[in-house]
Amino acid sequence: MNLRLLLADDHLMFREALRALLERNPEFEIVGESGDGNEIVELVRERSPDIVCLDIDLPGLNGIEITRRLAESQPKVRVIALSVFSDRGYITDMLNAGAAAYVTKAAAGAELLRAIDAVSRNRSYLCPDATDAVREALVGRSDSGIRLGARETEVLKLVATGLTSAQIAEKMEIAQSTVEVHRRNIMRKLDVDSAIGLTRYAIRHGLVSSN
Predict the structure, then answer these.
(1) 57-65, long-range: CB < 8 A, 24+ apart
(2) Which residues, in sequence order, are CB contacts of 13 under 8 Å at separation 6+?
(3) What percent of the chain has pLDDT over 70?
(4) In this structure, are residues 77 and 70 in contact, taking their beta carbons and an 8 Å threshold?
(5) Please, are residues 41 and 49 in contact by the beta-carbon 8 Å criterion?
(6) Contact between 70 and 97 (Cβ < 8 Å)
(7) Looking at residues 53-63, what average pLDDT do you find?
């Protein structure tokens, strides 16, 4: 079954470049596009996309408010945030609003394809530019007295980049079963039940500064 994608960006040339990139993949179907923030929520309702590639800075409703409304009215639709900005404040706002991924426009080619693959598998994704912006805030921080061990912190950082347990195990040179144990412990400590929830929780509850 093809992935249904909707493109939301007010820069026509950028939108056309995204369409050209995505249409090379026969598994993708572009079901709509718009550059007007006020149209996006209704367009999503009409076209029923699986994923919305959404610019943050849109005329009318901005991407943060659109994402918040889609999370409430169309919770099965995944939002990939697109932005020229890579600072923690924008990343925090979009993930808190309900976005599943964040990709900077400077890295929107291959990174967007990776983000689409990740969110289609019910995973979160941060492109390297966004990951660099939050990495320092993730290391060794705690929330409301919750303490993560060094290994748990490392696993948390890798989960936040969208890696699978198998990929984390390979990167850390440990058994996949060990990674799964760490993930379960982290989720139990933070009271979340998914990788997307883990990333959002980490940012929402002070592991990442919103300043």
Answers:
(1) 57/10, 57/83, 57/84, 58/8, 58/9, 58/10, 59/10, 59/35, 60/36, 61/37, 62/37, 63/8, 63/37, 63/94, 64/93, 64/94, 64/97, 65/37, 65/97
(2) none
(3) 86
(4) yes
(5) no
(6) no
(7) 90
Q: Given strand 101-104, what is the order of strands in its sheet?
A: 28-34, 3-8, 51-55, 78-83, 101-104, 125-126
The runs of H, that is alpha helices, within the chain are: 12-22, 37-47, 63-73, 88-97, 110-120, 128-138, 150-160, 165-172, 176-190, 195-202
How confident is the model at residue 129, as a pLDDT? Answer: 77
- The tokens describing 75, both together, are 């919770």
Residue 136 has pLDDT above 50, yes or no: no
pLDDT: which is higher, 29 or 180 = 29
Nearest Cα residue to 81 out of 92, 73, 25, 3: 92
CB neighbours of 71 closer than 8 A, spacing ≥ 6? Answer: 79, 97, 98
Indicate the burial class of 92 (C-beta count within 10 angstroms; 0-12, 13-18, 19 or more).
buried
Does the pLDDT value for residue 23 go beyond 50? yes
Structural contact between residues 88 and 132, judged by C-beta atoms closer than 8 angstroms: no
Q: Is 51 helix (H, G, I), strand (E, B) or coil?
A: strand
Contact criterion met (CB below 8 Å) for 168 and 195: no
Which residues contact residue 2 at a Cβ distance below 8 angstroms, ignoring those fewer than 6 apart?
Answer: 26, 27, 28, 29
Contact indicator for 100, 74 with CB cutoff of 8 Å: no
